[in-house]
Amino acid sequence: MDQGITPLISIAMNEGLFTESFHSIESVSPLLLSLVVFVFGSVLGSFLNVCIVRLPNKESIVKPPSHCPNCKARIPFYDNIPLISYLFLCGRCRFCKERISPRYFFVELLTGILAVALLFRFGLSPAFFVNLVFVAALVVVSFIDLDAWIIPDLISLPGIGIGFLASVVQYPWPTDSLAIPPTPMSSFIGILIGGGFLWLVAIIYELFTGAEGMGGGDVKLLAMIGAFLGWPSILLTLFFGSLIGAAIGVVLMLKAGADAKHPIPFGPFLCLGAVIYLFFGREVVQFYLPAG
């Protein structure tokens, strides 16, 4: 960063010029603030539903306006209120009465809950907004990968850049190796290790088995996770993701028979591992590697 700008930013931080507005907002009742953040998160979740449906089909997320996936009727604004409209309509289209996937409700609820969890984790700070963008990307990636078995480059590649940029912007703030957003160096190494490690695993697996074991989407996704969370996140994200994925794989095998094969996308489990690290990674690392 420009040496003429850095001291000015430091002075501004010391004088509280960047944080005064956040502190004034945080003086509002915690319950009211949590409710506002939940509503904001559920509205964001409504937009994420549009992305989940349209991005795999390479459709615009702006046009046409929201419409019923069955009869194509345009959804009026009063039927497009997050969570409430779904419950009021009993999960059915007002016009054709066809059932609407409960995923729409679940994504809105999940995004609202994640937004409140981020508020408790980071307060109403710049880190809150950075990581809200991050978890929103993870939600979109997870459901697209579950439905279409792809991880859109339109999410992961810009995500790598945004994660690294966030680390550069927050650099004047006091930080440490486990800080989120991470330092620029930690973010850069996280990108290299995240993408490089899975790429190497995929190459080795293909050499020994002759089959593709992991798609390029997973590689770019882990690079994005490294950009937002830093290099210490890579191992724990892979550990938690692999552990949960293996447990679900075993359950599916037991339900269908020991000889049945149930390939499942790895992206959602990487996303879940990243969310676990985002909220509990510092505590896990400090428990196993205490200072001193």
Hey, roughly how much beta strand do the residues contain?
Answer: under 5%
User: How far apart are the first and last residues' alpha carbons, in Å?
Assistant: 32 Å
Tell me the helix content.
55-70%
Question: How is the biggest beta sheet arranged?
Answer: none
Protein structure class:
mainly alpha
State the domain count: 2
Tally of helical segments = 11
> Strand tally, please?
0
Q: Uncertain segments of ≥5 residues (pLDDT<50)?
A: 1-18
Description of the structure:
The two termini are 32 Å apart. The chain is globular, with a radius of gyration of 21 Å. The model is unreliable at 1-18 (pLDDT under 50). It has 11 helices and no strands. It is an all-alpha fold. The chain has 2 domains: 21-124, no CATH class; 151-292, no CATH class.
